[in-house]
Amino acid sequence: MSTSQALSTEITKASTKSRYLSKIFDREINLNYLIIIVALYLVATANFGFFSQVLSIYPFSNNIGFIISITGLLFGLMWLLNQLLCYRPIAKPVLIAMVMIAAVCGYFTDAYGTIFDTSMLINSMQTDQGEAMGLMSLSFFIRVFLLGVIPAVITAKLNIKRLPLRRALWQRALTLILSIALVAICLLPFGDQYATFFRQHKMVRSYANPITPIYSVIKLGTDYIDELRRPDTLTLHATDARRITPTVGINSAKPKLMVFVVGETVRADHIGLNGYKRDTMPLLASQSDVYSFKKATSCGTSTAYSVPCMFSYANRENYDSSSADYNENVLDTLNKQGVNVVWRDNNSSSKGVADRVTSEDFKTPDVNPNCDEECRDIGMLDGFDTLVKSDAGVKSDGTAKDTLILLHQMGNHGPAYYKRYPKEFEKYKPVCMTNELSKCDDQSVINGYDNAIRYTDYFLNNVIDTLKGYEQDYDVVMVYISDHGESLGENNIYLHGLPYSIAPNAQKQVPVIIWSPNNNNIDKSSLTSMLDQPVSHDFITPTLLNFFGITTKEVAAAPTFFKSVY
Fold first, then answer.
1. Degrees to nearest 5, angle at CA 253 with 407 and 549
2. C-alpha to C-alpha distance for 5 and 8, rounded to whole angstroms
3. How many other C-beta atoms are found inside a 10 Å radius of the C-beta of residue 544?
4. Among 42, 258, 478, 556, which lies 20 to 30 A Cα-Cα from 200?
5. Smallest Cα–Cα separation from 513: which of 223, 296, 337?
6. What single-letter DSSP state applies at residue 416?
């Protein structure tokens, strides 16, 4: 066969395939059938994480009927949800959105065990470009393309059959009834098991995709509407705040200088000072006057939630993240009382905490002198003396003001732990060198994470050494508290951000480390007595006010990490 004949044959075959595909897409499909197909597709491709969690609790060999039932239940709920949302003019956009949401969320759920509740959505929206790129990988784009883009294109090309109104209404009513009936049929025979499942395994049902993300988006939307109805005025706090007059002749007469380090993604059980098998903080261990709290818990499990909560006047039980922007925090009170408050940030942002005080961004080489592949936390100490002795830190009579410097770390921000430290801190090897943690063995993930903690140890040690130069003129102290913890593959869960009620302790138990030299005004007995007691982020606001000698009825009875003597 000649080349021209072979080419003609291939063109004919291609033309035949094209006509065949054209006939397929030219055919009209009943919307109700399409909804069923998409529901089945979502159950089959977007819920590996969900079924993995179910099977870890209910082994298939002993629970065949229940597993079949829960699969049917998930399909029935998908079917019902799609039926409620899909009407002919908007059906294809809705189904395409479902497929794309499922593909994107399914990847993060399967790779990291992420649950897309409202807190996680808020955290995602506040993630900067650098953090977002750290989560991207080739497998993410492949999965989204194969399981999202291709099915979305196919759905877009399909022609939906137009039905007479009466017939369309009759079919919609029938399919709604059938989907509800399927849900009931799946639930009733296993009522006792479902009662236990829904009551004791709330986390598992949160893995249902895209049901949970869609519910969370709707919840976030309703919360936003509620926010729009709120007054624009800022809710004031500690309006009765006043300064304590120091007793003459004791150290409390000296100006105060505190460095408060807001840690990132460090869990308490990986701190050498707390008994961890690895010496992850050798430099702090060699320092005197270092105190580590053993039983500290966070306010939340994500930066976006925890950081505003840490400095609010609410405790964890009554903190409302949707109203945080409308309420003064403790930094506002300190600022009003004449404390020089400065927030330096090497993370995404202060999450609104420092909106009304001096704030400096250290995420770029233009400001941060210690940048290689990313800007390092140590750079936030640059120009420290100028910062303390600037005009903002001096009263009108020329004497020094009390000063609070807050340093928001990049710390152990995941999943690329191997990027969080310079190579000379890579003590534990081998290290997981990808952001796809599930592709690495657990130990290599932990190695990278622990190396990053050793860099935080170096950073905190430098903070302490810097403060030592001010001991003669100031009452100095360093406080380090992480915003939340981190899961490192336990039960196939990675990162953080799970709902607090179901989050593992690894995401909620955080280090609290205080350096307090003997010549400041902190009562050491009050400090040491708290080291083995349960403490939390709730202690931060009253502790800051106490150290700077400010009283207010709003926190009069609140516990603190330590007591200052005045």
1. 55
2. 5
3. 25
4. 42
5. 296
6. -
Q: Per residue in 207-243, is it b (16+ CB within 10 Å) or e — as a string?
A: bbbbbbbbbbeeebeeeeeeeeeeeeeeeebbeebee
Cβ contacts of 86 within 8 Å, gap of 6 or more: 31, 35, 94, 95
Please, are residues 357 and 379 in contact by the beta-carbon 8 Å criterion? no
382: three-class secondary structure by DSSP:
coil
Distance CA 490, CA 506 (A): 9
Stated as kind and residue range, the H or E segment containing 366 is none
CB 451 within 8 A of CB 417: yes
Pairing of strands 340-345, 358-361: parallel
How far is the CA of 374 from the CAs of 344, 399, 416, in angstroms?
A: 16, 38, 12
Alpha helices in 249-351 (DSSP H): 282-286, 303-310, 330-336
529 Rama class: left (phi>0) / alpha (psi -120 to 50) / beta? alpha
In which residue are the tokens 């089959």 written?
44
CB contact at 8 A, 116 and 213: yes
Peptide bond into 369 cis (omega under 30): no
**Cα angle vertex 128, ends 321, 427, to 5°?**
105
Tell me the pLDDT band of 322, cut-offs 50, 70 and 90: confident
The pLDDT value given to residue 248: 55
How many H helices and E strands in the chain? 21, 17
With bands split at pLDDT 50, 70 and 90, how would you rate the model's confidence at 445?
very high
Name residue 324's amino acid. Answer: A
Q: Token pair for residue 80?
A: 């019902």
Does residue 224 have a pLDDT over 90? no
Distances (CA, A) of 317 to 84, 219, 262, 328, 500: 35, 20, 21, 18, 11
The three-class DSSP label of residue 259 is: strand
Which string of DSSP letters, residue by residue, matches 516-536? --TTSSEEHHHHHTTTTS-EE
Q: What's at 500, amino acid-wise?
A: Y
Which tens digits make up the pLDDT trace of 463-480? 999 999 999 999 999 999
Total length of the chain: 566
Listed in sequence order, the residues at least 6 apart from 397 whose beta carbon sits closer than 8 Å to its beta carbon are none
Alpha helix ranges (H) inside 209-302 = 211-228, 282-286
Q: What pLDDT, in 10s, does the model give residues 533-551?
A: 999 999 999 999 999 999 9
Residue pointed to by tokens 């992480």: 482
Provide the token pair at 208.
Answer: 């249902």
- The rounded distance, in Å, linking the Cα atoms of 35 and 46 is 16
Find out whether 537 and 310 touch, Cβ atoms under 8 Å.
yes
Q: What are phi and psi of 454, to 5 degrees?
A: -65, -30
Residue type, 308: P
